[in-house]
Amino acid sequence: MLEADKIATEYFEWVKSNYNFLQLENSGSIDVQTPFIDSFGDSISFIVKLIDGKLVLSDEGFTIWNLEVNGNTVTRKNTHKRKILNTLIRLDNAELTAKNEIVKPIHKKNIGQAVHDMTQLIFKINDMTMLSSKNVKSIFYDEALEYFNENSKFYQKIPSFSITGKSQLDHKIDFGFFTKEGIKLVKVHNTLTRTTVENALVTLLDTAEYRQKNYQENEKLCLLINGVDKSKSTTNNNIDSLAEYNIDIIDFTNKNEVKQKLAISV
């Protein structure tokens, strides 16, 4: 039997021991090196620095630069990708400077949460590498929200909310659904990657205590994915990894599957 508390403790010990904070002597800034990698196999990192006397996190422009040198143009004005980029940054209370630097203002009392949020934001922006011309017209969350609103007679949903985990970090849940099988908590992702799996496990394990208190852990965590390609072995490996923790994958492009798993009535 899997022991959630033991796995959660070991995971967060691993995260804590693999985040490195290095003082940069020449600039006075602090380099934050995370244990996670982006879509191109590069380590996700950013710095803590002062801008006009205010404390901020900054990627120094690397995220956008890395996307574009790898053939993913996201900053061209009046394009859908630029609109999606702007929305992702705005929703996370960050800013994009004229030099394509992602900057997130922070306060000393919530640096830990800010580091977590900045890591997640860079994950989301890197996820844009998976956007094709056919699905770049809108942010997937907005598309899913529109679908559920237009079909409200089938779905009884709860708007997005956050759960504070044992680590004291907040984890955003995009939707909650009352279904025939009970309450389901849903996070939406454009693609199913190893990073998606890791993020889902972080949410599941870190919020176990809260869910035990409020739901008796009878609810289920689901990932709503904008297209699942089961012809790829990596996809099936990711599905199997999540299944071990009772995390379900729902292919949004298969509306019959969406109804079957999330509808209160069909």
User: Rough shape?
Assistant: globular
CATH class of the largest domain: Alpha Beta
Beta-strand residue percentage = 15-25%
| Beginning-to-end CA distance, first to last residue | 35 Å
Q: Please outline the major beta sheet.
A: 6 strands, antiparallel
The main sheet orders its strands as: 1-2-3-4-6-5
Going by CATH, the architecture of the largest domain would be: 3-Layer(aba) Sandwich
Oligomer: single chain
Q: Give the proportion of residues in helices.
A: 25-40%
Q: Remind me, CATH topology of the largest domain?
A: Trna Endonuclease, Chain: A, domain 1
Listing every helix as H and every strand as E from the N terminus to the C terminus, the arrangement reads HEEEEHHEEHHEEEEEHHEHEH
SS-derived structural category = alpha+beta
Count of discrete structural domains: 2
| Rg over alpha carbons | 19 Å
Topology (elements, then pairings):
Elements: H1 4-18, E1 20-23, E2 30-37, E3 43-51, E4 54-58, H2 62-69, H3 80-91, E5 95-96, E6 102-105, H4 111-126, H5 140-150, E7 156-158, E8 161-164, E9 170-173, E10 175-179, E11 182-189, H6 194-206, H7 208-215, E12 220-225, H8 233-243, E13 248-251, H9 255-262
Parallel strand pairs: 11-12, 12-13
Antiparallel strand pairs: 1-2, 2-3, 3-4, 4-6, 5-6, 7-10, 8-9, 10-11
